[in-house]
Amino acid sequence: MGMVGIEKVYLGVLNKNGTPILDDNKGFTTGMIEVTDEMLGTSTFNFQTSKNSEEIAGNNKALSIQKSMPTASADITFNNLPFDIQQKVLGREKVGQGWVDSMVNTYCVVIAQSPIPDSKDKVYTVLGKTVATSKGYNLQTSTSKKTNRVSDEMSFEGLACDALNDMPVMTCSSADAGFSKKAMFDQVCPGQTLITETSTPAVKKSK
């Protein structure tokens, strides 16, 4: 399965119980938001996953393997994520004039959308429960010949998600018969109102 770049990224904020935060002071009233063109979009989505296993040997043979829980994470570069959205995704709280890290975990939903080559179909990478951290920044002076611009680099560490059968990541394709983008969003962020269409029919392959 090939994919072409990163087309859209969606973000949502969950409380410690995994319930979407719809309070605009701490989350998003629509449950999920899209990182839009007005925010200059997303430039990189570096997804990593691994699944280790332990060999079970007997009779001088490798007879089976013991599977372990998979891991999943994403390093994402946003070009101009609004300041308040970044603080909410990082789970920070307002103290006086600024924002500080909270000792109470806030979780984030991440959905990345990519097109399939030579097709109108999409592939979705769904991280249902993550902890977001900032990767920091390296500020350097700008000159008359060069502007040193710093983007928003963030890491999202995937955790076991109830909605994903205790797995950290789910992959979806609009080519699947009966696929519904709204149902996918509702699965990991129940109560969201960003995506309201009921179904997305699979695109028929041209002959």
What descriptive keywords fit this protein?
207 residues; 2 helices; disordered C terminus
Structural write-up:
The chain is mainly beta and 207 residues long. It has one domain. It is 7% helix and 39% strand. The chain has two helices and twelve strands. The strands form three sheets. Strands 1, 2, 3, 6, 9, 10, 11 and 12 form an eight-stranded antiparallel β-sheet that branches. A hairpin with a 6-residue loop joins β9 and β10. The chain is globular, with a radius of gyration of 19 Å. It starts with 7 loop residues before the first strand and ends in a 19-residue tail after the last helix.
Topology readout:
Blueprint: E1 8-14, E2 32-34, E3 42-50, E4 53-58, E5 61-67, E6 71-78, H1 83-89, E7 93-95, E8 98-100, E9 107-115, E10 122-134, E11 152-158, E12 169-173, H2 181-188
Give a nutshell description of this structure.
The chain is mainly beta. It has helices spanning 83-89, 181-188, and strands at 8-14, 32-34, 42-50, 53-58, 61-67, 71-78, 93-95, 98-100, 107-115, 122-134, 152-158, 169-173.
What is the helix/strand order?
Answer: EEEEEEHEEEEEEH
Arithmetic mean pLDDT: 87
* Range of helix content: under 10%
Radius of gyration, in angstroms, nearest whole number: 19 Å
What would the principal axes of the Cα set say about the shape? globular
How many domains in all? 1
What is the terminal separation in angstroms? Answer: 19 Å
- Stretches where pLDDT is under 50 for at least 5 consecutive residues are 199-207
Class of secondary structure makeup: mainly beta
Number of distinct helices: 2
Let me know the largest β-sheet: 8 strands, antiparallel
Q: What's the β-strand tally?
A: 12
Percentage beta strand: 35-45%
